[in-house]
Design a protein that fits this description.
There is one protein chain. By secondary structure, this protein is α/β, with parallel strands linked by helices. The protein has one domain: P-loop containing nucleotide triphosphate hydrolases (Rossmann fold, 3-Layer(aba) Sandwich). 27% of the residues lie in helices and 21% in strands. The strands form 3 sheets. It has a 7-stranded mixed sheet with strand order 6-7-8-3-9-10-12, sandwiched between helices. Helix 3 packs across helix 4. The structure holds adenosine-5'-triphosphate (ATP), iron/sulfur cluster (SF4) and magnesium ion (MG). Adenosine-5'-triphosphate (ATP) binds next to strand 2 and helix 1.
Amino acid sequence: MKEDLVLPATRETRADTAPEPLLEVSGLVKHFPVKGGFPIRRTVGAVQAVDGLDLTVHAGESFGLVGESGCGKSTTGRLITRLLEPTSGTITYRGQDISHAGRRQLAPIRSEIQMIFQDPYSSLNPRQTVGKIISGPMEINGISPEGGREKRVRELLETVGLNPEHYNRFPHEFSGGQRQRIGVARALALEPKLIVADEPVSALDVSIQAQVVNLLQQVQKDLGIAFVFIAHDLAIVRHFSQRVAVMYLGKIIEVGDRDSIYARPRHPYTHALLSAVPEVTLTEEDSPQRERIRLAGDVPSPISPPSGCRFRTRCWKAQDKCAAEEPPLIQLSGNRNGHLTACHFPEDPTTEAREEDIVLDPALAALEEDRN
Ligand SMILES: Nc1ncnc2c1ncn2[C@@H]1O[C@H](COP(=O)(O)OP(=O)(O)OP(=O)(O)O)[C@@H](O)[C@H]1O
Ligand code: SF4
Ligand SMILES: [Mg+2]
């Protein structure tokens, strides 16, 4: 039997000299001005789309960012890729502060950070061939790979599971899943170090979603590319991301290693999101009864978010303190490995069924009673 190789501790493997993160975001804020007034339009408020976000992504890591519609996920993605200018806070990429970097400073980094968009229909130019679409980033950046761009595009088509012979076809000749593969090939063209994938499968048929997620996972592992994977629910990032952050109204309310987040969630909102995730890994017999929380009602407006804890208007545990003081994002006792939670009255670290289901909307509860 082969013995495990034991390597001496090198500089890279020692925790105290851990390599610097690929991406570090600190206190990131993006407020969009709201205009109003007549006859002179002026700024009357701000959409607090992202409001003080800290996160770290290491080389080759997959980081999941999850939350309901409007909580600021896409804005975060666009800030990281610097398609948007932050209102304040810092974005550091490979040790370089790029928060307000201009076009010239960003040029060498542009190729290293790529984005995959949600909608494979609108993100591909319908008048360009697949070859032109995928080679576009190489042209813009003046990159001529060995053997020529066409050879490279054919290789990329093969990497993403498409027929290289389809080089001259147009996007409308492909299905939704295939189009998203084209989007992946385009993102890979410049050999990026970081890909921000903004809900890359939510516009696809459920039957196709797993195939595209598998492709992304393969790309992440084989090419060592770091991912920020944005999703609506926790089910999709579960098999993809080693670390997961949950966002609510412009803030991260819980973040940690995947296992810790899924097995020992502490924030009530994470509990609610998780109770909507079907348990797929356990068989019927050994599956414990899971809790059931129905999160109803809309996320409050990011123009005037609730004081204190932003989740308090939907939280079943809210008390006076929650309105008065914003809970800091901290490591609670009993949690390890950088599992951080922002809650004054955290939940028990379990997802097992409670004595009673929590149904947050009385109208929904009445409907359920009628059905039973
Ligand atoms: N360019 C903009 N101008 C004004 N408000 C904006 C702009 N972009 C986003 N917003 C607002 O910022 C908030 C966050 O939007 P964002 O698109 O980041 O959310 P999201 O989490 O990606 O939502 P979804 O899941 O629906 O994609 C929303 O209230 C949105 O209306
Ligand atoms: S701080 Fe209060 S309102 Fe916010 S999640 Fe915790 S218990 Fe609920
Ligand atoms: Mg979005």
